[in-house]
Structures are given as C-alpha cells and as structure tokens.
C-alpha cells in the first residue's frame, strides 16, 4: 500500500473543508471516518494482524503529507497513530500484551488520550491526578486536558500519580470510552489547531502500564512530521505565490526580487536541517535506542523550524497573506501549537542542556518546579 500517496489524496480532499473547520472550530468527524474507511488509521498495525505494517518513517512521511491538507485532522489522527506505532514495535519485540491494542486498532477503533493535567498543564513528567491503590487496580479521580480526538475516541489512555503507601510514581492507564465515571467535556476554543477536538477528560478508573522510549520516539517523530508538513505546504504556497505574481510597473515576477530570493533561502535553511534531523533519528532507531535528549532535540528543532519558516512565508506574501481566503494565515496559526506540545520548549532545552553538561535529568533545580 502506498500510504504516502493515500495521504496526499486525502490531503487534497480534506483541504476543501479545512478553512470551514478552522473558522467554526468544529471537529471534522467526516475526515476521521474517511481515515477509518481507507484503513489509514491501521497504517502501523502489523500485516499479520490486519494492518498496513508501516514503519515510523512511512508514518512520518504520510502524516507530513496529510498535514498540508488539514492540519487539525493530521494532528488529531497523530494521537492515535503514534500509540499504535509504539505498540507495533513492542509486539515485534515479543511483547505479547501489545497484541490486544493492535487488534483493536485493526478493527477500526480509535485510540488516544492525554498526558496533561488541568492543574499541572504541559509538565508531563508529573501528574496532579491521584491514583489510589485498591484491590485489583487503582481508583483515579481527576481532570485532564488536551485530549485530541475526544469526540470519537473508543479507548482513552492517560497518566496518574500513585499516592498512599506505595509512594509516588507515574502510571499510564487505559479505559474504554464507556467506562463508568469517564466523561469528555468540550472546552476547546483556541487560536490554532481549532478542529482537533482536544477536549478535557474526567475519569475514575485505571489500568496500569508504563511508557517507554518507543512511545516518546513515535510521539516526537510523528508530531514533528505533522508540523514540518504544514511548513512545507506553506513554503510551496509562498514560492508559487511570488513566482506567479507580477506587480504593476514590474516586468518580472516578485520571485526575482532579492528579498524573495533571500526569504526562500531562509525558509530552506530552516526546514532542510530539521527534516534531515528527523530522517536521521528515524534511521538511528533501526539500530539503537534514542536518548531522551535526542528525542527532545528532534522535536524542538523541528517544530521551531516550522514556526520560523511559516513566519517567513507570511512575510513573502505580504498583506494578502493574512486574508482568510488564503490558507497561509491558518497555517501560520496552526504551527504555533508545535512548541507547546510536550516537551515544550523550556522542558526540551532543560533535557538537552543537562544531557550536554552531564547533569542527571532529575537533578535540582528543574524547570517547572
């Protein structure tokens, strides 16, 4: 299956409603249904379990293409795909417990969640949501935010902090949508990524499972691919815009102006190293386990390069770029969400800097404490 080709076709289809989704802030349920119908959401599921068998590189390239059509749809879908990709790698390494999640995905169930609490924000290394040990599991009461795909989730996963005699510890749990006490609250009204359906979640039951390098690598790489995909779409639009536009009194298109030449160069010198770093990380993971600081570097460089590139695209198009009839202003707003995803810029820099200086990642003082 040509997943990248399919993503391009879907991107063209979704682009027709992307502006309306952004303007109204509604969740594009019809787009998610199309992703289910075409099998796109089963892309990383192993072939023997009924999926597409796509690896991290393929998923990243497909997501980058999809983001150029409707960024909200791509980002929302990403919160399903990175978890499924994580489980696929675990299954390939003999972790039999990952099979059930993959089989659920193969049967077109939508899986996603949130690692962020309403109380602690985007500091994902801690949770203000308590998990109290009881016979057979934990009882959790709390509220989480930024749960993309909330309107259509079948399975929800999140984090909680163990309290009581066991001591502190961060737990990852999973719940079916119809679990008693689990509810979703529409709080999503934002300046960017307005169609992701990233609602708040209220819950009171958990299943414990610990995250690992696979999960964070899949999250960081696929997320970075989405934002670089938005930036690439913006760049292609800006290059085409200045190449086809000739102002009154000029004999050459705007693209021949030195300022436009330099702008294109700045865009490429932002995006090409970021794209290369992402590709390098994907290749490295075939033979090694990436350090947390390396994963943070990929995400930090990628999303900030996307912001810088789209800023420059807007400068290239001038005043027309801010009109809503053109897609550039939407892309400009959407990429601004990139640095906010965990690890956010400050958290990423803390991890990278401490690793560089040989300081333990949990050494005091810590950003956010």
Keywords:
alpha+beta, Butyryl-Coa Dehydrogenase, subunit A, domain 1, 5-stranded mixed beta sheet, 369 residues, single chain, Butyryl-CoA Dehydrogenase, subunit A, domain 2, Butyryl-CoA Dehydrogenase, subunit A, domain 3, 4-stranded antiparallel beta sheet, 48% helix, globular
User: How do the SSEs run, as a string of H and E?
Assistant: HHHHHEEEEEEEEEHHHHH
Q: From the helix content, strand content and strand pairing, which structural class follows?
A: alpha+beta
Helix content: 40-55%
- Could you list the spans in which at least 5 consecutive residues all have pLDDT below 50? 207-211
Note the gap between the termini. Answer: 47 Å
Number of helices: 10
Radius of gyration: 21 Å
The level 1 CATH classification of the largest domain is Mainly Alpha
> How many structural domains in the coordinates?
3
CATH superfamily of the largest domain: Butyryl-CoA Dehydrogenase, subunit A, domain 3
Oligomer: single chain
- What is the strand tally? 9
Strand content: 5-15%
Q: Largest sheet, described in full?
A: 5 strands, mixed
Here the CATH topology of the largest domain equals Butyryl-CoA Dehydrogenase, subunit A, domain 3
Basic shape: globular
**CATH architecture assignment name of the largest domain:** Up-down Bundle
Please state the average pLDDT score: 90
How would you describe the overall organization of this protein?
- By secondary structure, this protein is an alpha+beta fold.
- It is 48% helix and 12% strand.
- The chain has ten helices and nine strands.
- The chain has helices at residues 3-24, 29-37, 56-67, 71-92, 99-106, 213-244, 258-284, 292-317, 328-334, 345-357; strands spanning 111-114, 116-117, 130-134, 137-140, 142-147, 155-163, 170-176, 183-185, 199-203.
- Strands 1, 3, 4, 6 and 7 form a five-stranded mixed sheet that branches. Strands 2-5-9-8 form a four-stranded antiparallel sheet, with no helix packed on it.
- A hairpin with a 2-residue loop joins β3 and β4.
- The longest helix has 32 residues, at 213-244.
- The model is unreliable at 207-211 (pLDDT under 50).
């Amino acid at each position: 299956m040509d997943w990248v080709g399919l993503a391009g076709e879907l991107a063209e289809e979704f682009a027709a409603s992307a502006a309306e989704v952004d303007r109204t802030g509604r969740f594009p349920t019809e787009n998610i249904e199309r992703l289910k119908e075409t099998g796109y959401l089963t892309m990383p599921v192993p072939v023997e379990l009924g999926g597409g068998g796509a690896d991290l590189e393929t998923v990243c390239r497909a997501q980058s293409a999809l983001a150029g059509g409707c960024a909200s749809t791509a980002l929302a879908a990403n919160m399903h795909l990175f978890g499924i990709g994580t489980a696929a790698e675990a299954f390939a390494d003999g972790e039999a417990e990952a099979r059930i999640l993959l089989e659920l995905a193969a049967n077109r169930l939508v899986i996603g969640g949130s690692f962020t609490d309403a109380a602690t924000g985007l500091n994902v290394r801690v949770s203000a949501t308590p998990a109290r040990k009881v016979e057979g599991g934990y009882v959790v009461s709390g509220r989480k935010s930024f749960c993309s795909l909330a309107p259509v989730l079948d399975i929800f996963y999140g984090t909680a902090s163990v309290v009581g005699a066991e001591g502190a510890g961060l737990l990852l749990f999973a719940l079916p949508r119809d679990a008693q006490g689990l509810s979703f609250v529409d709080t999503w009204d934002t300046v960017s990524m307005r169609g992701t359906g990233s609602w708040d979640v209220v819950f009171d039951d958990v299943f414990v499972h610990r995250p690992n390098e696979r999960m964070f690598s899949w999250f960081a790489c696929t997320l970075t691919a989405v934002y670089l995909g938005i930036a690439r779409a913006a760049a292609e639009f800006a290059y085409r815009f200045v190449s086809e536009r000739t102002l009154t009194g000029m004999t050459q298109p705007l693209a021949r102006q030195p300022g436009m030449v330099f702008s294109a160069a700045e865009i490429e010198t932002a995006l090409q190293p970021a794209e290369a770093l992402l590709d390098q990380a994907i290749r490295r993971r075939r033979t090694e386990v990436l350090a947390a600081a390396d994963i943070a570097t990929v995400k930090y460089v990628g999303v900030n390069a996307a912001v810088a590139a789209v800023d420059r695209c807007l400068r290239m198009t001038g005043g027309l770029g801010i009109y809503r009839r053109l897609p550039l202003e939407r892309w400009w707003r959407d990429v601004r969400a990139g640095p906010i995803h965990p690890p956010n810029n400050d958290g990423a820099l803390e991890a990278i800097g401490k690793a560089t200086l040989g300081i333990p990642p949990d050494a005091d003082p810590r950003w956010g404490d």
